[in-house]
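Appendix B. Chain record.
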Amino acid sequence: MRDAVAASPFIDLVTDSAATEVEQDGTGVAVHAGDTWWRGSYLIGCDGHRSIVRRKLGIRFPGKAIAERCAVATVRAELPVPPEAQLHRDPQFDSTAQELTLRPLPDHVWRMDWRLPPGAPAGPLPAEVLIHHLRAALSGLNEGRVPQYELIASADRKIPQRLALKFRSGRAFLAGDAAHLLGALGMQNLDEGLRDAENLSWKLAAVWHHWAPPALLDSYQRERRPSVIARLRAVDQALPLLHPANRMLEVRRSLLSGSLRRNAALLSDGSLGTGRLGAPPAYRQLPGEARKLGRGGGAAVRGERAAGRPALASELQPTDRGALVPDIAVTTVDGARDRLRARLGRGLLVVLVAPGTDVWASEHWLGAGLMPALTEATRALPMPAELLVTGDYPGAAPHTVLLIRPDGYLAATLRGCSPGELWRMADLVRAGSGALPEPTGADATGAAVPPPSEAKTERLRTPPAAAAADTPADTPTPAQAN
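Structure tokens predicted for this chain:
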């Protein structure tokens, strides 16, 4: 990761410089790190569950300090099991820690997580107890015999469950562990953090380049926070079924809800990224549609309440708005073959479903059928867009046109080429009004679209107030990552 960051011309990596202060005004954000003030257009706090950015923004982070406790060990051993993530619940492993999550790492290394019972003693796990768990697990995985192993690392991990009251304050945003900790039942916070990044990055790029109005940034909290809330609620509802707090509740669960085996699919949902505990969310409402509920922070709050229980992408058909698109084979207009998800992140995608185009050279169909009109309609969209063609898309009839957001969510499904409707849906994706543009070339809000400014990051030795006076208000700067 460090090498990839160093190879990018758009990133300055500054180490040993913990952020200590955050200040913002109407034109940018300043962060004090080490002996330097850094100033940029926006700030994203991805600094973990002890986030200094979150504290300086005054955003509360309520929840449970300890939702679960786990013993963790990293061992090197040759085990007769497939090299894939596994979830085991079997009394033969251990009478006090029957739930084991096993994840493979390179060179015959395995990461093992045991869920400790609620009555486990507080404080660090004694070494002899950890070794007991480890040997019992290795024996259960190796037909009753403990294989030769090397213990590389171990820990007693406390799993909290928290949610920030806001994901945005002015020009500053929270993402990843700084915004949410999903805690129990195999929930991997890394997945949700990546979804935060995918959701926010294209919106910041669109606003910074003047391809979208600033209101688009309101949709980050409006989309991401309700989806995390829904997952936390699902975990709270499933916990009593899977992890009763005492023997009486365990008997009650067996009588009312059936055996653990009947409900064990909930555990695999959380561990394998499926179902309500693990599958990605769906964003059914376009940013421009949700914007009609109100403006500013109020729009985000009302949008959350109006959305109700957010759907999961797995609950939708591939052609339903809000579904996460499958990774199908596509062809670019210059004839190159690629995968759909490999084209994400560069702007909107317009995909024409045209059977046969995946077997014919592009010169045979570029000037035929819907292609000429669709090419012009794609060029006229209010955001950068790429036209792709596919021979087949699940559930889509021939000549269907799909409009896909930069983060891979389906925004619209159209029948044939309708330039006006395609433009309207693209405008709603960028939080516009959906009204067709005036012939003068103004955007949907009636304002002329200025050209994007050249990127610039400022390193300041003076306090941010003085530096702000020297920074032109109309010169946006990219966020500086610390």
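Further analysis of this model is presented in Appendix C.
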